[in-house]
Amino acid sequence: MSTPRKKAIVSVINDLVTDQRVNRTCMVLHELGYDVMLVGRKQRTSKEMDVRPYRTHRMRLLFEKGFFFYASFNIRLFFFLLFRKADVLVANDLDTLWPNRIVSKWKGAKLVYDTHEIFCEVPELQHSTWKKNFWKRIERRIFPKLQYVFTVNKSIAGYYEKEYGTKLHVVRNIPANYAIAPGKPGLEGLAPGKKMMILQGSGINVQRGAEEAVQAMQWVNNAVLFIIGGGDVIDELKRMTRVLKLEEKVRFIGKQDFSNLMRYTMSADIGLTLDKDTNINYRFSLPNKIFDYIHAGIAVLASPLVEIKSIVDEFKVGVCIETHDPGHIAEKLNAMLGDEKQLAEWKQNSRIAAEKLNWENEKLELVKVFSSFL
Fold first, then answer.
1. What's the pTM?
2. In percent, how much of the chain has pLDDT > 70?
């Protein structure tokens, strides 16, 4: 008689379709033999779920932002977890931790916390003292009691270790080695002979350099910038593009599934990651997109944030800007695009770096922890 598989429920407040880190975590659990359920939300604009080897459940909520959204999501998540059997609960970010913590105590399930950023320092909380204090109280109450905590880079791990004395495991957001199915993305507007640059992400928000990237296109020669994804600054970027009459130089593509996104990225020459050092969360950020650019075999233009600069310098996959002045960004882009030999070398270095920077190597810490529960 076979032993029943252990059950793991992974929860995240994001749209399940586009969150690759959570998908990779679920795949590790699935490969280890867990019966996996991924729980998130479904928005009015959400794409249909792709086929996955584990189960998914998306909750449709009456509210999609603000206090009532977070409150309703956490209440719904609490009752969802309460009435389902689980041996392991995985909470992604602070906005799912409270219901996971309570249910794990009541049911004796193992609790794993994956903090993708310094949650209480995100820009969205800095202008509301009561909101920041609310989340900080939850964090202070729960974090020091957690035994299994993951995060995305050494800088954030060091921050939390200093804050709470808790040892964290570091698992970076590095993609797996993949084979993209044949097919060309829609590159309308990219005339023959023109270079292609890309700025991608599901969080193209304020203070992440997107505004300056669009402004820089006034002076970038013989190239088109593709902005792919979503975020709270997209409407402003579109307005800026119209005002500056850059419609032939800047193209906007909505959120894409991972395969199609990577088809675009692999078609580009340079990938941009230009987050600003305006808060500690951005200062220590290591965006998924830099690894996507490396795996796509393209060059990188980056802001000199500590974790990003470390990757760029170690693997020599591109250059960093000195300032966010649009004229300076344009100079850097023109220099990169104008030196074919150096551009080819950066692309080759990206392909070499991808052999080391891949999920097959990075996931080993997750495998170690989840295997210990079996």
1. 0.84
2. 96
